[in-house]
């Protein structure tokens, strides 16, 4: 019965392989793997010639994953001789490459076939595999009777990457009697190997039109006084390929120069380009639509030579793959790029204006400043936001009032776009105020002087936006104006005022204490955070907040107490714990009696402090019925210094909740609690949860180590 089923399956596969439906044939190829290799392999090799690429792809995948006993490489090298079906031969090459190193011995043997086409395909496969074992045979094939094989061998040597082949490749490249295709392949291989070759060594290859681009690609990797002359002459060539190869090689030479030599070389390059304006025009067009590698070279070169290249470079920056290179070139042009952009600003489309603003954020000229200030009032909200970011990056103190006026208008617009613009404006003002020295001080004075009369007159949205700026730039001298924010009718403005007070240090302590009684929970939360960033004297105020009616306020107070604990705890090995430390621990321990976010926040504070006193408080939670809180307690205990306390987690490896078990197991493993091994092994015998079992195995591995 089984034999009959196997026979029917074989017949079904054979029948489906001949189906006119390519999907049926593809599925039949997938099923060939169920047959013995002696039956499946010939049919797979035959399938390499299928007319449908999806079927051929399936065949290649099946051959690449076939068992080693099938000897796939030998069968595939035989398929290379099918001169009547190019598709089959190409698919065989692809399959050989997918076989990788295992195919190299069969390919080396096949490279001695009398059929030149087979030898050429064998070399292509060796190039795709890139195994150094092929190097010697490829060197021999540089002298093959067939020029296509010689060219393929040269190309393959470049792909394999063996620098020992450089001498032989150079010999082929300068051999004037050899086929041009072979010499060209040898030159590109030398370039790919990054071989240092002088102009003298390249000889006549530098003067032959078809070879010059490849010969130029080889130059520039070694100090050579003659190379520059050939390359400068190449910039004036009528061949685009030659010019672009010369540009790339000159950039490579400049990368080796120190600053002085680089500028001298740049001057000679500019002079050569000035004598060939057509080359500059062509490069300016090609930097926008050539292939990516060429555009990267052209962008750098145009930035070097200058001239009327700003707009082409800006347009090329539309492609994110080249934006940074194009911007780098434009920044090198500096004032010239700014002036060019200012001249055509009104004619730029919205996308180019946005790119221009991003660029002008990296320059420092007056023309760029003027464009950015104009952009702040543009109808395009996205452009305004980008311009604000650029102004902030430049730390333009003269733009402060423009930014503040724009912020007032943006504050009245709702929606995501308005929010993004407001954020960009606020961040720009902050960046300018944070500029070093007199610039930042002047920006802060300008900002505060502008804000003073407006913080009472404007509507709520504007007051809130302006208060956010004040919160970020204010200093101790601005206490009166910041304190006035706490009397604002808007909770959002009062909250911004509290955040500003948090920056002012001890002088703001009393206003912050008053803010703890604010009617808005959000303001009280902000006041707790500001007090927690200060000294331990805030603990009295924070303790009162632990009785607040709002859970989020109590949680904020606990978080602030945890911050006080972290700041007041002495460094390990230094002075004993202070009274403030002990009191903060006691307050957090008291907060553990609450449920939900307050207790979890208290645990986070104890964990972050790493205070030894915290262990006692955390241990009391190890029998808590709330699984989430218990899990957090386990995590906290694992972070504390007292290793003996961690042993108390051993009973939890049998907890009913899988998350608690997993946390306890992980901590015991990480802390190397060897006494836990028997309990962990007992748990392993009965554990049903796969995730927990994996943690058990990892913990045992750590403990064993």
Main beta sheet: none
Catalogue the unreliable spans.
Answer: 1-5
Shape by Cα distribution: flat
Helix content: 55-70%
Structure summary, number of beta strands: 0
| Average of the residue pLDDT scores | 87
Strand content: under 5%
The gyration radius over C-alpha positions equals: 37 Å
Number of helices, counting only DSSP H or I runs of 4 residues or more: 43
Structural class: mainly alpha
Layout of helices and strands, plus pairs?
Elements: H1 2-17, H2 22-31, H3 37-47, H4 53-64, H5 72-79, H6 86-99, H7 104-110, H8 116-129, H9 135-141, H10 147-160, H11 166-173, H12 180-192, H13 199-202, H14 212-218, H15 227-234, H16 240-255, H17 259-274, H18 277-289, H19 292-305, H20 310-316, H21 320-333, H22 335-343, H23 350-360, H24 366-375, H25 381-394, H26 400-410, H27 416-433, H28 437-457, H29 460-473, H30 479-485, H31 491-501, H32 509-515, H33 521-532, H34 539-545, H35 551-568, H36 579-591, H37 597-609, H38 614-619, H39 627-639, H40 643-646, H41 658-670, H42 677-686, H43 690-704
List keywords for this structure.
705 residues; 43 helices
